[in-house]
Structures are given as structure tokens and as C-alpha cells.
């Protein structure tokens, strides 16, 4: 037909080159044939297109949309972000988008700073008219089939009630509330209730010890804790309330503890401090006016491990975080063309104690009006078929988990998968660590019937939501690669000196521009925020990860390049484990590094030097493991403890971790130059010691 090759305006005003137009026309056309389009300027275009099937049409739509977004961002970044901000309901719409600077002189991260909105309104109220009776949360307990679901209306009511309970207990805008909860709807209710009244929540993973809980409560200055009597995981009970009692012996600023009944197990309630959730809510009114929040008001603090010191309180704010979780949920997991978001049942298996649980169990899905699963169990209880049995029973359509879970279940064999009808699943996702090709293939073949796309999402607690990930249907994937940056995300690879690497290269992964979901500060320590992320490669945000870009421009995350290890997709600072080990009276010094682990991705390898004259023993290994569990939690338990006569140190006394890493990786022959060591013979001793039982 007649083809005009000049750029044209289409539909909602998206500027597009001819190739782009062709795609849109093809899509509109669908079944093929002649088609004509008025581009708004009065010129008509006539096109003949071939036939497409439904799947292809959906793909073209997505690819097209992604390209349009990227083009729009390239043309006018602020205009793009303000247009995207329309995804949210604002009481005052912002006039400005990005006012961030990575530069030391005017350092700061700010987005939509003159906008006002409330997160709970976006996750609840705005859906009531259209989705009030639709499921919001589908809860699945530890025992298969133990569950219930909450509609948006019911969730709204419970959130308002609990918000009133918080207020009645003296919590006001800006106050910090610690949550130490199982994966039950009440956890999401508590988060959203905080958001409703402008309180700042800090969720602490229920697997952390009372010591870790106390550290976090003290650091963020929480005055109220929400918990449950006990948690249940894999048939075992976790004494959450007892742990809180224990933590509060040290964290003395807490005035109230709200306890929900999960198991009915015995707990001691302290008069004047502890109250039952159920009782308090029963007496509370079920309407609560939302607090108007500035876009830059804090939404939550979440602690995460770094290379040095204690875990940092990563602070996220209201507008940017919500936009990023909302936008990325839609791009990655949104409905197929012509479908509604409620046609899907989305299951992200992460615990709300981690950022993945914040962004993709609670905020992202609910803001989009989706149906989100909350699972309070573990993948291997009552048997290794649990995730598949539950997916089939609930009719899950999108399943998002960590590679470590896939590897663990893959090892149990296909017989745990085959009995279950997984035909409802249409899309798979992974997060938290690189996925190895073997696990990718198994996931794709056995769970995804060889048909479902896999979205490998790279991101961090600090980033709020996914930054590098394929948009299903629009991005051709390569197993093990997180593929390309999402629209508006600017990754770069730099060498050790910070020089940008072009083309196919491997280096340190940095981001050269801010994005709305970026963390705003380390709570209480803005200087540490700058030092940790912006001082290594000035002018950029340094992720702590290494990455490779292949000849096609695909990103492959190679893992952390700092002293952070990734155990089963959980971040662990080697310094934290070391300081726990150092607490033992017989330990002189400990050095911890990551080691390859078939299931966990990385395991924890501890080199422990005892005081002069002390001998290592199996009993002492047990004591050290117990100590770490007590100080941090079971996830930090060392896999290997090697007692060593000395540690490889430079003459200035710095431990050469490079050497320890090589040893732990079983690459003792690749240690390289050790001439800078104060005592090079240490290396030989370490090598010999490795044959001992661990
Ligand atoms: O090393 C990267 C790894 O997990 C780190 C972030 O951990 P955390 O803040 O706990 O957040 C985990 C969930 C977002 C990153 O620095 N990581 C995360 N996703 C991937 C990944 N590594 C490779 N591929 C991924 N998809």
C-alpha cells in the first residue's frame, strides 16, 4: 500500500518512526489484510499486513510499548516520569520529577518532591469501586489448604481498623513501627496501616534472632512492635513473641507490643505493654482517613547487609518507591493484552522480611489491583511438591521465586512435579542470585512446560524494584542473563578506576542516573549512604555487583565484588558473621568468605584462629555455629569452619581475602602472588588444614 516513511504521531500522542508505526498497524490489523490509519495530521496510511495469531499480537503490543517508553524517556526524561506518575492517584500531582544528584556537592535523591499521595489509598481505596469484591490477598498457610482470601473491600476495612489501633496506641506520622510477623495477611495489613497514617514500618524477617531484632529496633527507634504468638514454618513453631520479649530487654524504647494469634500457643503478655491484635481491632472503627503524605516522606526502613559494620537501614519514601514497584510490577507481571490484571493469580514466594516481599507481595501487586498470594510455609513441607501442589490448587498463573529454591526442588526429582497440573502457569520469574543454566532449563521445561517465558530480575534492597529484567513477550531471553535495563534505567560497566567500558565487557556495575525507586538514605547516617554507594566511582551509584555485557548488549550479573555473600538469595555481610564468631572467648580472630554451594549458591566458609594454646574441636565448631545462630539467625550459620594457626595478612595487618576466597573455592592452585604477605608460609598451613573434617 501507500507508505509514508516520515515519523508520525499515533494514538495517545506517541512519537514514532515508521518501523514502529508498522508494528502498531500490524497489531491493530491482527488478522491481516488492508488497513488504513489517520495519523491525526489528516494524512492516511494504507497498509497490507500478514496474519498474526493472538500470541504474536500480544507480543507486538508489549515490544511496541517498551520501545515507545524508551524513546519517550530518551526524548524528555522528566516528561516521561511525570507521565508514568499518572499510574498513581495523587492528591497533589507533582510538577517536577527527578531532582537527584550523585555528586558530593549537591548530593541527594529526590523525586516528585512537590507531589502528595497516600500509599494505602493507592493500594486499596482506589480499587474499591471497580475491584471491591475481587480477591486482593490469597493466603496459604503452612499446612496445605489452610488459608483464606481477603477482598479489596475486606482488606481496606482491616487496614483502617488496624490504623486506628496504631493511633490509639500513640503512633503518629513519622513514628517507626517494627513488624516481626509470619507471612500472614495481618503482616500486609500492618504495613498498609502504617502507610495509611504515615508511620514508617520496619519489617524484620521472622528468622532473625532476638539479638538482630533488638539491633534493628534500637537503630530505627521503633516505639511499637507488631508480632504473633508463634510462627509456623514446615510444621515447626517459631516463638516470635518470646523472641520479642527477649529483644525488648535491650530495646527499651518500645512502649507497646501488638500480638496476633497465629497458633494459639502459650505466650506471656506484659500488663500495660502487650495487647492482643484481635481484641484491639474488634473495638476499633473501620474507617480511617488517610494521612496526606509528601512524595518524599519515608514509607519504610528495611535492614540489609553491607560489606562493613552492622546492617544498614535502607530508607524508601512514598512517591518514588510506590511508582517504581507499581510500574515494574506492571511491566514484568502485568496482564496480557486484552486481559485484566485480576485474570492472573500472582505468587511471589519471598517473605515480607525482604525487599522482594515488600515490592512484589504487597505494594506492587496491590497498587495494580492484582491478586497476590501470601504463603506462610516452606517449599519442602509437607513434601518437595508443595509449591507445585499449591500452584495447581490455587490456579497460580505467575510464579516468582529464587534460584536457590529451584535448585533445591530440582534435586528432589521430577516425581514431585509431574502429578500436579501446572497448566495455569503462564509466566515464571526469578530473583536474588544468578540462575545457572541447569536450573533454568529445569524450571523452563518442568514448571513452564517449555513454553512460559522466564523473567530473571536483577535488583537490590536499595533499588526498590527490578532494574535489569526482560519484559515478557518483548525481550528475547538468554538463560542466566537478566537481559536489558528497564525504561529509564541507566546501567554502565566500569573498570577498577571507574572508566566506562564500551561494548562487550566485564566490570563493576554502576548506575549513572537516579530512578524513582532508589533508596534515599541510610536511616540515621546520611554520610554512610554517600560513602557506601557514591564514593567508589564518583558520580555513579555503585551496586556492589560485577557484571558482563555480551556482544548483543545483554547483561549477565556475575555476583558481588565486595564482602557481601549471597546465601540462598539472602544477603549476608561477612563482617557480621565475623563479629559474631569473634564474640566467643576462645576465638582470637575470624575471617569469613563465600564458597560455592550447589543449592544455596554460596555457602559460608569461616577461617577461625583461636587464642594461643587452644585446640579446635568438633564441640567448639558446634558452639560457634550456635553462637552465630543466636547472634544473627540460622541463615548465617557457617557451612565450613576451619581452625587455622594464622590468617594471611599484609605487612600492614590487612587480611588478604582474595587468598581465602580462592581457598574456599577449592582453587588453591590459583592464589597467585603472595609476596606481599607478612608471612607467606601461612598459605601452605591453610592449604594443609583444609583436609580436616569441617
Ligand atoms: O548480587 C545481587 C543479587 O542480590 C543482591 C541484592 O540482594 P538483596 O538486596 O537482598 O535483594 C535481593 C532481591 C532483589 C544483588 O546485589 N541479585 C539479585 N537479583 C539477581 C542477583 N544476582 C543475579 N541475578 C539476579 N537476578
Summarize the structure.
The protein is α/β, with parallel strands linked by helices. It has 20 helices and 32 strands. It is 31% helix and 22% strand.
Which class do the helix and strand fractions yield? Answer: alpha/beta
Radius of gyration: 26 Å
Q: How confident overall, as mean pLDDT?
A: 92
Stretches where pLDDT is under 50 for at least 5 consecutive residues are 1-20, 29-35
Ligand set: adenosine-5'-monophosphate-propyl ester
Number of helices: 20
N-to-C span: 74 Å
How do the strands of the widest beta sheet line up side by side?
7-6-19-18-20-21-22
What is the number of beta strands? 32
Q: What spatial form do the alpha-carbon principal axes imply? A: globular
Oligomer state equals: single chain
What profile does the largest beta sheet have?
A: 7 strands, mixed
Give the helix level as a range of percent.
25-40%
How much of the sequence lies in strands comes to: 15-25%
Your description of this structure?
This protein has 694 residues and is α/β, with parallel strands linked by helices. It has 20 helices and 32 strands. The strands form ten sheets. A seven-stranded mixed sheet has the order 7-6-19-18-20-21-22, with helices on both faces. Helix 14 links the parallel strand 20 and strand 21. The longest helix is centred in the first third of the chain and has 22 residues. The protein is globular and about 75 Å long. It binds adenosine-5'-monophosphate-propyl ester (PRX).
